[in-house]
């Protein structure tokens, strides 16, 4: 008989707590891509300051797992560097809205002290990753850098050993500019390069580049910038060499013609001053949410991210979305119900 | 109310105790066995499409090309075996020497105790920390050694260039340090368990310390040292994080220890997160092979252990 009041107290306290919790904070959970995770998590924190009633939890489990979780319906939103394929979309009964949330820029980072801003022609980029351009003073590199006295040093190649959206976007571009690359390596989240060393994650590749003189690697702009790596200027489709920075990436993105589903890869952008390797990363939302409260909270969060949230992008190394993209993304957001 | 009835209750209560305990223990043992069976079943089930498609070619071919749906894990099997065997090669002499040093009375017991604690502390360092330490400390050293080795021993296939920092050698050196506490601790226990009478007998017959250690103490402790090595090998083959950070994760086969390589565990850690379709099935197949290799090594270890036990039975 002694136990009963205690139990009752515990129960009532628990119920009260549960009531408070549900009454005060609307939880939104998301999972997916690791690349934008630092930004999304920052958004969660900052948005909570503006809207204390809404808590956003984002788990960086990888794009593939994010899409899986989203299809299974165990999260409120997903996130993917590769958006969703048509087959994947077909598995979600109510339909899917894909919203570009931020963008990334992939750079050719290299370690060759004293030689900043090396220009790499299109065939050279592919050649390095095919193992056909092996020395820094290869005639093909010297040709576009006549003013530099490049050393007779072997080029060591670094790539991502883990499956990643970065590799996907990078190999997609190389496949677009080189038929040989498309034939021998192709496009995927993990591919097999004929040369080089694999590092795990952007930080792994960054470490490989830092470790030895003569190494090149492809990493997201933010990592190269934070670690003070040199970045090559890449030749775009119109033949111009463009240095990677936030401005050149935004230029590329604002020249894009977005399709209605907002899923687009600027595989080989055409503008005269476009930086060639950029990509969006997407938030995946359901077309219909049964819970009106959740829907309202989610819409508020995404709207805030597309507006005020963009101001956090640049300091974390992401490319803030250009205005036309934000407009289209907001229009797409308004269609969910 | 009646006394006898209460007696029966207490009696049966007394009996129920051990029975309950027995059931609990049996249950726990059964659950462990079932769990292993379940894990293997699940892995085989998800690996099945890949097993059907590639069969044994999966083990004998060396192309791992996810975007062309071609999967072969030979380089990763070779990398797993090579890195763990190299690690044992480095760690075995070092570990056994430390174990001898710590079990003989070269130093005062308090210093020996401290040293033993320090060596065993190596086991408490997380794998990812070893990986980071390897990146910042071992890789530069291996690179300097590699450049020298390629220049002076380059004709020898094991040291053919170009030398990479992230290489089989780097991974093996760090693995050796990681398995050192396992080998040292278990070997030390085996050496310490050698009966005092044997030691004294050897000295009484006029053996020097050197002769006593090599002719009497080490052979007597051999089963324990073998067990220590097998356990170390098992740990080396399953090690994932530090290896993924250091070995260079390449699927190209090479004779050179200075080239990047890859292991099965590293492959799984690298690619599972973003894998789709047949790649998932193939990764599961690779996991199955890793389990099989580990099991095989343990069986061999068990056999070697029995044989050495039999051989040294006369001494003890």
Rounded to the nearest angstrom, the distance between the terminal CA atoms of chain B is 62 Å
Straight-line distance between termini of chain A: 52 Å
Low-confidence stretches of chain A: 1-5, 10-22
Helix content of chain A: 40-55%
Kindly report the average pLDDT value of chain B. Answer: 88
Descriptive notes:
The complex is a heterodimer of chains A (337) and B (316). Chain A has 337 residues and is of the alpha/beta class. Helix content of chain A is 41%, strand content 19%. In chain A, strands 1, 2, 3, 4, 6, 7, 8, 9 and 12 form a nine-stranded mixed sheet that branches. Chain A has a three-stranded mixed sheet with strand order 5-10-11. In chain A, strand 10 and strand 11 form a beta hairpin. In chain A, helix 12 packs antiparallel against helix 13. Chain B contains eleven helices and two strands; from the N terminus they run ααββααααααααα. In chain B, strands 1-2 form a two-stranded antiparallel sheet. Chains A and B meet through helix 3, strand 7 and helix 9 of A and strand 1, helix 5 and helix 10 of B.
Task: Throw out a few tags for this protein.
heterodimer; A: 337 residues; alpha/beta; 9-stranded mixed sheet; 3-stranded mixed sheet; 12 strands; 19% strand; elongated; B: 316 residues; 11 helices; 76% helix; 1% strand
């Amino acid at each position: 008989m002694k136990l009963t009041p205690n139990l009752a107290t515990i129960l009532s306290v628990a119920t009260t707590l549960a009531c408070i919790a549900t009454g005060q904070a609307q939880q939104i959970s998301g999972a997916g891509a690791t690349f934008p995770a630092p930004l999304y998590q920052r958004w969660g924190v900052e948005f909570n300051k503006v809207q204390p009633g809404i808590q956003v939890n984002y788990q960086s489990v990888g794009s593939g797992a994010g899409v899986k979780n989203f299809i299974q319906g165990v999260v409120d939103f997903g996130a993917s560097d590769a958006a969703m394929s048509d087959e994947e979309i077909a598995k979600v009964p109510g339909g899917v809205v894909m919203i570009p949330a931020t963008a990334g820029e992939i750079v050719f980072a290299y370690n060759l002290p004293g030689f900043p801003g090396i220009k790499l022609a299109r065939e050279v980029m592919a050649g390095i990753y095919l193992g056909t351009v092996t020395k820094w003073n290869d005639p093909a590199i010297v040709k576009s850098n006549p003013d530099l006295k490049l050393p007779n040093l072997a080029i060591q190649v670094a790539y991502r050993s883990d499956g990643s959206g970065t590799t996907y976007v990078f190999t997609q571009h190389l496949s677009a500019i080189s038929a040989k690359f498309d034939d021998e390596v192709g496009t995927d989240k993990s591919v097999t390069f004929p040369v080089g060393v694999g590092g795990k994650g952007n930080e792994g590749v960054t470490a490989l580049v830092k470790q030895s003189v003569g190494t090149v690697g492809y990493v997201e702009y933010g990592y190269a910038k934070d670690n003070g790596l040199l970045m090559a200027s890449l030749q775009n489709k119109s033949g111009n060499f463009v240095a990677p920075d936030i401005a050149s990436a935004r230029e590329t993105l604002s020249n894009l013609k977005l399709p209605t589903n907002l899923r687009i890869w600027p595989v080989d952008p055409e503008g005269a001053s476009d930086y060639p390797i950029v990509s969006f990363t997407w938030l995946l939302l359901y077309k219909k949410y049964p819970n009106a409260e959740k829907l309202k909270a989610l819409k508020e969060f995404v709207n805030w991210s597309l507006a005020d949230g963009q101001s956090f992008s640049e300091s974390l190394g992401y490319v803030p979305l250009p205005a036309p993209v934000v407009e289209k993304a907001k229009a797409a957001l308004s269609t969910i119900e | 109310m009646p006394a006898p009835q209460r007696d029966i209750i207490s009696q049966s209560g007394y009996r129920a105790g051990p029975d309950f305990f027995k059931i609990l223990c049996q249950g726990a043992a059964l659950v462990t066995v079932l769990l292993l069976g379940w894990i293997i079943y699940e892995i085989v089930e998800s690996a099945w499409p890949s097993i059907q498609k590639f069969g044994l070619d999966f083990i004998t071919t060396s192309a791992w090309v996810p975007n062309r749906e071609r999967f072969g894990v030979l380089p990763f099997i070779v990398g797993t075996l090579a890195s763990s065997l190299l690690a044992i090669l480095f760690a075995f002499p070092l570990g056994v020497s430390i174990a001898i040093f710590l079990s003989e009375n070269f130093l005062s017991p308090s210093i020996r105790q401290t040293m033993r604690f320090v060596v065993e502390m190596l086991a408490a360092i997380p794998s990812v920390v070893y990986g980071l330490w390897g990146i910042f400390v071992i890789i530069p050293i291996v690179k300097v050694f590699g450049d020298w080795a390629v220049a002076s021993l380059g004709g020898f296939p094991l040291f053919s260039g170009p030398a990479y920092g992230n290489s089989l050698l780097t991974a093996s050196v760090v693995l050796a340090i990681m398995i050192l506490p396992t080998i040292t601790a278990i070997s030390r226990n085996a050496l310490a368990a050698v009966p005092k009478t044997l030691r004294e007998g050897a000295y009484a017959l006029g053996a020097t310390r050197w002769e006593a250690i090599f002719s009497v103490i080490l052979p007597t402790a051999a089963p324990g040292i073998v067990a220590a090595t097998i356990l170390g090998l098992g740990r080396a083959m399953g090690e994932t994080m530090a290896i993924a950070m250091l070995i260079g994760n390449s699927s190209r086969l090479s004779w050179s220890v200075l080239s990047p390589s890859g292991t099965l565990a590293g492959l799984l850690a690298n690619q599972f997160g973003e894998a789709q379709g047949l790649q998932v099935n193939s990764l599961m197949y690779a996991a199955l092979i890793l389990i099989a290799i580990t099991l095989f090594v343990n069986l061999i270890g068990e056999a070697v252990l029995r044989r050495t036990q039999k051989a040294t039975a006369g001494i003890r």
